[in-house]
UniProtKB/TrEMBL annotation:
Domain of life: Bacteria
Function recorded in the entry: Broad specificity carboxypetidase that releases amino acids sequentially from the C-terminus, including neutral, aromatic, polar and basic residues.
Cofactor field: Zn(2+)
Catalytic activity annotation: Release of a C-terminal amino acid with broad specificity, except for -Pro
Protein name: Metal-dependent carboxypeptidase
Keywords: Carboxypeptidase, Hydrolase, Metal-binding, Metalloprotease, Protease, Zinc
Catalytic-site annotation from UniProt: 255 (proton donor/acceptor)
Cofactor details (free text): Binds 1 zinc ion per subunit.
Organism: Yoonia litorea
Biological process annotations from GO: proteolysis
Length: 489
């Protein structure tokens, strides 16, 4: 075999082992018995050592030195493998294992601390996680910004300074829009209770409506919904709330967006570096456009209104127009995953600034709760009432995912661009969505984004689909037009 063929064969085995490691994480959050946490941490550490050794195997460097790219697919595979080899070669194996073990332990401690409203119980392990991630970031970054090294794990090409500039342009218009909305009467909120079985049945129907292939996936419950896997085994989770079925429905649609990306990648890329989404920002573009521009649009909510009446009977909303306003109601709230489209990015900006300060050393873990509460009061105008509504609400930091949060807002920006391009190309799309038929929309996304996996860089992926480089302007225009109509601004 030539060098490229040998290298790709080795990379496929590494990717397969990575999928096995990912399945350990899925099991931990869905089915693992509580008492198994210490052993699972050891298992994660062992897998991390095996994967790290493969990522930095000297043969990879030898193959890379002589491998030739004979087509764009080979060139992209070599780009991904080289990037992984160079990055992982800078991280000591013991550090990689320690991170895997500590974050596995920290996840379960976070979940219990969140349930108990006990920040102090979580902080010692969070300090360890932060210290380990800082050590990793410094090893990778050298003289560059350590936060950028972490961000690069999730969004290649991006930088903290670049994202801060985008946020600085977005924040004034988002704040002005929120202020104008909050001065208007709010649409009715949902009231009453909605049984869990009905929520889960309708959740499964929504997953199928958005093209989720259950022959190659499954839906389970988790504290914090997520998607896991790639190729032929892509699993999602959701959660229920007796008083807020939207939490279940839109969590499901969101995670189906992630899963559809993985399921939609050309099978020729299976278990290769191109066989997964190219970045978390592009991944979030799929989950956010499924959830918001499609799932919360007037056309699709009209269909959902009828399905909710069929499932739960009369639930106090007069008609489809009123239901659309309720789905898109802008109101005070603490939880990022439950936030409306107008305020969602403001939640991300808060987390982005705090985690950059943690990684730079300007903010200590012991001061994080106070910093969070002060910033939240400043940004949203009211005080955090309990830790589960504040610093303990998200799973990400317990798992060491520093640099991940800004990709949510990048995903919104990318989704705004994709929605504008898709609507320009697909006439009569709302007629389909009003029947609960998302196939033309999801098909357009599969054809223009999903099938390519990691073939292109993140920015080029969006540019290829839309014809221009990403900009926040389409998202801001979409939000101002949509909520301007709902609230008669």
């Amino acid at each position: 075999m030539d060098a490229y063929t040998e290298l790709l064969s080795f990379a496929r085995e590494t990717q397969a082992l990575g999928e096995v490691a990912g399945r350990l994480g899925w099991d931990q959050e869905t089915m693992m018995p509580e008492g198994a946490t210490p052993q699972r941490a050891e298992e994660h550490a062992a897998m991390a050592k095996v994967l790290h050794a493969r990522h930095i195997d000297p043969r990879v460097g030898e193959w890379l030195a002589v491998a030739e790219a004979k087509d764009p697919v080979a060139a992209a595979n070599l780009r991904h493998i080289r990037r992984s080899f160079e990055r992982n070669s800078k991280v000591p194996a013991d550090l990689a294992a320690a991170l895997a073990k500590t974050t596995s332990l920290a996840h379960r401690v976070w979940a219990q601390a969140r349930a108990d409203e006990d920040v102090a119980a979580f902080l010692p392990l969070l300090e360890e996680v932060v210290a380990l991630r800082i050590a990793e970031a410094q090893a990778v970054a050298g003289d560059a910004d350590p936060y950028d090294a972490l961000l690069d794990d999730y969004e290649p090409e991006a930088s903290g300074a670049g994202i801060a500039a985008i946020f600085d342009r977005m924040r004034p218009r988002l704040v002005a829009l929120r202020q104008a909305i909050l001065e208007k009467p709010a649409p009715s909120a949902l009231s009453g209770t909605f049984d869990e079985d009905g929520q889960l049945r309708l959740s499964e129907e929504l997953a199928r409506a958005f093209g989720y292939d259950t022959a190659h996936g499954r839906i389970d419950k988790a504290v914090h919904p997520f998607s896991s896997g790639s190729g032929l085994d892509v699993r999602i989770t959701t959660r229920t709330s007796l008083t807020d079925p939207f939490n279940c429905f839109y969590s499901t649609i969101h995670e189906v967006g992630h899963a559809a990306y993985e399921q939609g990648i050309d099978r020729a890329h299976l278990l290769t570096p191109l066989g997964s989404g190219v970045s978390m920002g592009v991944h979030e573009s799929q989950s956010r456009i499924y959830e918001n521009q499609l799932g919360r649009g007037r056309a699709f909510t009209g269909w959902l209104f009828e399905r909710m009446k069929d499932t739960f009977g009369d639930f106090g909303i007069a008609d489809a127009d009123a239901f659309y306003a309720t789905v898109n109601r802008v109101s005070d709230g603490f939880i990022r995953t439950e936030a409306d489209e107008v305020q969602y990015n403001l939640h991300i900006m808060l987390r982005f600034d705090l985690e950059r300060a943690l990684i730079s050393g300007d903010l200590l873990v012991r001061d994080l709760e106070a910093a969070w509460n002060d910033r939240f009061k400043s940004d949203f105008g009211y005080a955090v009432d309990k830790p589960s509504n504040g610093v303990l609400q998200d799973v990400h930091w317990s798992e060491g995912l520093f640099g991940y949060f800004p990709t949510y807002s990048l995903g919104n920006v990318y989704a705004g661009c994709l929605n504008s391009a898709m609507r320009a190309e697909l006439s009569g799309l709302d007629d389909d969505l009003a029947r609960g038929d998302t196939s033309r929309a999801t098909g357009w996304l599969r054809e223009n984004v999903q099938q390519f996996g990691g073939l292109r860089t993140p920015m080029d992926t969006i540019a290829h689909a839309t014809g221009s480089l990403p900009s926040e302007e389409p998202l801001l225009q979409y939000l101002e037009e949509k909520f301007g109509r709902i609230y008669q601004l």
